[in-house]
């Protein structure tokens, strides 16, 4: 994070005073959330953030009855397999650390298995390969500048067997 802050200062996006303050805050940070707040307001952030934790190749989420939430800062893996039956999963990309261009998600949503993805500008979700037997598939186009660079493309495959798959954007963007 200190390197990103120094790069921003070298590009003229931070004053020397801001650089010093943010460096001290970065070194004192205890959580990924603390680190994420240090660069959130910088214009034109770098396309790829360096993560202190490497991205996993595969993350599996399997839930029967109950709910799963991924919120706050977390490192986006290369692939996810999500299987839900009578359970809900909320995956929020608002503060996620993106290290790769593409995330592949394979879904299997049984009866009552609902998946909600919350994205941000720069994230595009493509779900053309999802087979819908029962349930709803709602992927709305992002409300953002069409010239905004794409940081992450989420490619969703799999099947809905009674569950719902919804992509939405943070309410603050609307």
Automatic annotation (TrEMBL):
Cited Pfam families: DUF1707 (PF08044)
All copies of domain DUF1707, residue ranges: 2-43
InterPro entries xrefs: DUF1707_SHOCT-like
Designated name of the protein: DUF1707 domain-containing protein
Organism phylogeny: Bacteria, Bacillati, Actinomycetota, Actinomycetes, Kitasatosporales
């Amino acid at each position: 994070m200190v390197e990103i802050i120094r790069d921003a200062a070298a590009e003229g996006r931070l004053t020397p005073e801001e650089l010093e303050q943010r460096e001290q805050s970065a070194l004192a940070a205890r959580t990924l959330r603390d680190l994420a707040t240090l660069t959130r307001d910088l214009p034109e952030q770098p396309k790829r953030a360096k993560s202190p934790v490497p991205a996993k190749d595969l993350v599996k989420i399997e839930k029967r009855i109950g709910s799963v939430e991924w919120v706050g800062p977390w490192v986006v893996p290369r692939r996810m397999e999500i299987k839900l039956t009578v359970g809900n999963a909320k995956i929020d990309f608002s503060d996620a650390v993106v290290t790769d261009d593409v995330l592949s998600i394979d879904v299997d949503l049984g009866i009552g298995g609902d998946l909600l993805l919350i994205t941000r500008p720069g994230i595009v979700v493509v779900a053309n390969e999802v087979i819908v037997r029962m349930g709803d598939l709602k992927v709305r186009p992002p409300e953002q500048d069409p010239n905004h660079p794409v940081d992450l493309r989420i490619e969703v495959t799999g099947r809905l067997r009674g569950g719902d798959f919804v992509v939405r954007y943070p309410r603050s963007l609307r």
